[in-house]
What we know:
- The chain is built from 10 helices and 10 strands.
- It is globular.
- The chain has an 8-stranded parallel β-sheet, sandwiched between helices.
- It starts with a strand and ends with a helix.
- The chain is 37% helix and 13% strand.
- Zinc ion binds next to loops.
Amino acid sequence: MKAVYDQAHWQRHPSTELxxxxxxxxxxxxxxxxYVKTSVTxxxxxxxxxxxxxxxxxxxxxxDPDYIDFLASCWQQWQDTGKPGEAIPAVWPxxxxxxxxxxxxxxxxxxxxxxxxxSISGGTWEAAYASSQVALTAAEVVxxxxxxxxxxxxxxxxxxYDYYGGYxxxxxxxxxxxxxxxxxxxxxxxxxxxxxxxxxxxxxxxQRDDVHFFSLHGDPALVFPHFTGYENERGxxxxxxxxxxxxxxxxxxxxxxxxxxxxxxRLIEQGGFDRLIISLGVDTFEHDPISFFKLTSEDYLKxxxxxxxxxxxxxxxxEGGYAVDAxxxxxxxxxxxxxxxLKNE
Length: 345
Ligand SMILES: [Zn+2]
């Protein structure tokens, strides 16, 4: 299996996250990616490839070009105002307000975001762009029929068509699904196993039937992103039925969570898809500091095995996972289980 990494992720290194009424050291840290790189390398399951540059075009296929311009220029605009801290939104267009883009940076931050935990700092755009190119480089391998892993940081699945949040700026999985479509695939499946609902991915494909979205996550009535991810969200228009959510409550172990995983895989096996993208978050881990499922490191081997049942060229893209000392082993175990199951076929 091929894997792609870019040290440019280090450029995203903010010092603040709004959490519990305080500015804390961000959970989404550069060390996360380094632990994954080390563990996946030690497991000897991948050959590392350097990233290629596919430019902005594949990104603006799924994101509003004005939003991308905002991301690229936000830090400069914020600094121009002389504000002392990192860029954090503090006001949003709520119900019955106008959905228009303000001219000042505080207004723009609110318009182009949905949450305030994610500070924008210098280098954020550069790292987000690099992360999307890591994903696309891995996607190009998968286009050739092999499976691959993109070690993406920052993650992507909370980024919607025109807003960021939840540590995500560019939706790497969505960019790659569209890339597969543009390269000739008729139908692509995205399976999101991160602890949190992949609201951005759902948003981008909600009315389409060529990219189906399957997500298992913590009950949004209890946990981020709160306003999306319910099981009655099944797609709309042409996309009616092409979106599926499975929600679970606090303390959910693998034995329970795997029912949703198996059901998703059954739908994927029967769905006539050309390729599969896995939004690979391991914040489902029992000791994750911001989540409430109880998967163990051993369980991730089985997760990889079950995913292999789809027998599709599969693109794994890193999403969340914040128990940094275990994130590497857990990601490596998914890839190991997947690879082993393919070998046994
Ligand atoms: Zn997550």
